[in-house]
Amino acid sequence: MISMHKSLNLMLLVVTLSVSTVTHASSTSKVVTVVTTIAPIANIIQNVGSNYVNVIAIVPSGTDSHTFEPTPSIAKLLGVADIIMVNGLDLELPTVKLAEKVKKPGTPIVMLGNKTLDRKDWQYDFSFPRQHGHPNPHLWPNIALSIRYAEIIRDSLIALDPVNKTGYIANTEVYRANLEVLDNAIFDCIKSIPEKNRKLVTYHDSFAYFAPRYGLKIVAAVQPSNFSEPRPREVIKILKQIKKENVAAIFGSEVFPSKVMRHIALETGVKFIDQLSDDELPPPPNNSFIGMMANNLTVMTDALGGDSGCMKNVNSNALVH
Ligand SMILES: [Zn+2]
Q1: Per residue in 102-135, is it b (16+ CB within 10 Å) or e — as a string?
Q2: pTM for the whole thing?
């Protein structure tokens, strides 16, 4: 018993020593504090940065990122950031404005979308009209563009933390391979949908850059630019489009509950599925950007008459390493 007690003590000592060693190591080797906005981008940063970074996402899960206003506690977080990464294309204007005021002088603000897509390729539509001057910001559901996000994140982190360059490069390659599996799987999903059904009517307008890549036609996005419900005249127009295009299903999301979508579904007899997401991640173990897109495609493909087995090889773990 005595010797067991002694060895327990010894074990405790070893544990204490190793903990203090770890603490010591992390305080000398730099861990980059990255403050970002929405969960999908936070998850991409986490996959690229792995244990070299501490990622803080400031937009709470289930919150409308388009109308999000940062609170004073968020100003504090922005103030400690070594780097601030946002989507850009005007998605987070209040946050960027605040960040410019409160950030440390040397902290860069990286606008991933603006670095990814030339201004001439920005899209404007019913929900993001050109006359308001704010483009549709949803680049990330297009996986070719989210791979660019990962590369820009990698390069920005290397610029700040060159000691860990090889680590960032290796992480990005592993993550890129996983995104490429997802990208190919999305093509397979869409191909499995009968051609006449490859049409999207969504409430929130988050597939404007996704649809052209994968061969879907956007018939309508219902949500007006002020994020309220559409007016009766607009609803009548959408009803006509749905009938004319013989749309198989219409989609909403939990972040934007809409009575109008239920009304449209009743009027047209078309299925309504309110499970798409552009910035809320699914629950663990699939709480990843890739998991969110896998869910979207499973839901979409099923409802439009395709084979949702298309997502079976996709790795939805929060971290792919
Ligand atoms: Zn959105």
Answers
A1: bbeeebebbbbbbebbeeeebbbebbbeeeeebb
A2: 0.90
